[in-house]
């Protein structure tokens, strides 16, 4: 049994730090410049509305796995830009699609093969979420939801081994969040999704042999951003 120890404060590259600083600064400027109570503009969520959001996403896996080589592993989190779009089927029910991809590196420590750099892989989890938005009499608009996703692993680098393969698979997500409307066209959003994702791995270590693993990834996705209502 492998216990995965996550390092959520893992070092980010310089360009990511610059992007985060720019994004948050822009978000503050837009919020201050457009801060007008949404209640002055009537109903801001209704059937046929489209909400388009640009956000900063932090994705942190919470892995548990069984493996044939023992030891423990460390897998890093990632911070990336994300785009989401929501369409309101009724005044309260909306369908959301998100676009974003993350890069994660992994290292196995204390295994039968010693300490092994497992390289990195890109993860693309296209997700459709069905949301219920609560009616409120102010600018604060909370919602809950459930979603279905299909996780794709691509453009991996095997690190110290010959190859590492990941099985693409379906999963699901629980969702909670809120929109805070600055006026009838613009809003700030905070969104939290907990994914249930499973994958199986085959690790080819060359002369050292083949190892297998079954992994529950179960990442937590937290995003904050700015949006436009159409």
Quick description:
The protein has 230 residues and is mostly beta strands. The chain has one helix at residues 14-33, and strands at 2-3, 50-60, 64-67, 72-75, 78-88, 93-99, 102-111, 114-124, 127-133, 140-157, 163-166, 169-181, 186-196, 198-204, 210-216, 220-229.
Summarize the topology:
Blueprint: E1 2-3, H1 14-33, E2 50-60, E3 64-67, E4 72-75, E5 78-88, E6 93-99, E7 102-111, E8 114-124, E9 127-133, E10 140-157, E11 163-166, E12 169-181, E13 186-196, E14 198-204, E15 210-216, E16 220-229
Antiparallel strand pairs: 1-3, 2-5, 2-16, 3-15, 4-7, 5-6, 6-9, 7-8, 8-10, 9-10, 10-12, 11-14, 12-13, 13-16, 14-15
Label this structure with key terms.
single chain, 230 residues, mainly beta, Porin, five-stranded antiparallel β-sheet, 1 helix, disordered N terminus
Counted up, domains total 1
Poorly predicted ranges (pLDDT <50, ≥5 residues)?
Answer: 1-12, 36-41
- State the share of residues found in helices, binned by percent: under 10%
Q: Mean pLDDT across all residues, rounded?
A: 83
Please outline the major beta sheet: 8 strands, antiparallel, barrel
| Alpha-beta content class | mainly beta
Q: H/E series, N to C? A: EHEEEEEEEEEEEEEEE
Question: Numbering strands along the chain, what is their spatial order in the largest sheet?
Answer: 2-5-6-9-10-12-13-16
What is the architecture at the second tier of CATH? Beta Barrel
N-end to C-end Cα span: 50 Å
Q: Based on DSSP secondary structure assignment, what is the total number of beta strands? A: 16
Q: Evaluate the radius of gyration.
A: 20 Å
In CATH, what is the class?
A: Mainly Beta
Total helices: the number is: 1
CATH topology label? Porin
**What percent strand?**
over 45%
Shape: elongated
């Amino acid at each position: 049994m492998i216990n995965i120890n996550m390092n959520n404060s893992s070092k980010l590259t310089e360009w990511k730090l610059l992007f985060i600083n720019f994004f948050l600064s822009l978000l503050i400027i837009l919020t201050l410049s457009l801060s007008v109570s949404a209640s002055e503009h009537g109903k801001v969520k209704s059937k046929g509305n489209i909400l388009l959001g640009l956000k900063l996403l932090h994705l942190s896996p919470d892995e548990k796995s069984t493996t044939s080589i023992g030891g423990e592993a460390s897998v890093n989190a990632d911070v990336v830009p994300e785009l989401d779009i929501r369409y309101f089927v009724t005044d309260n029910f909306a369908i959301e699609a998100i676009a974003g991809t993350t890069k994660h590196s992994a290292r196995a420590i204390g295994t039968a093969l010693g300490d092994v750099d497992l390289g990195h892989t890109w993860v693309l989890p296209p997700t459709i979420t069905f949301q219920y938005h609560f009616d409120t009499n102010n600018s604060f608009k909370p919602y809950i939801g459930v979603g279905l996703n299909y996780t794709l692993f691509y453009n991996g680098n095997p690190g110290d081994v010959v190859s590492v393969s990941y099985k693409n698979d379906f999963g699901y997500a629980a969702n909670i969040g809120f929109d805070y409307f600055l006026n009838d066209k613009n809003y700030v959003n905070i969104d939290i999704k907990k994914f249930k994702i499973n994958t199986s791995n085959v690790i080819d270590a060359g002369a050292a042999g083949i190892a297998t693993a079954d992994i529950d990834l179960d990442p937590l996705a937290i995003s904050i951003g700015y949006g436009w209502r159409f």
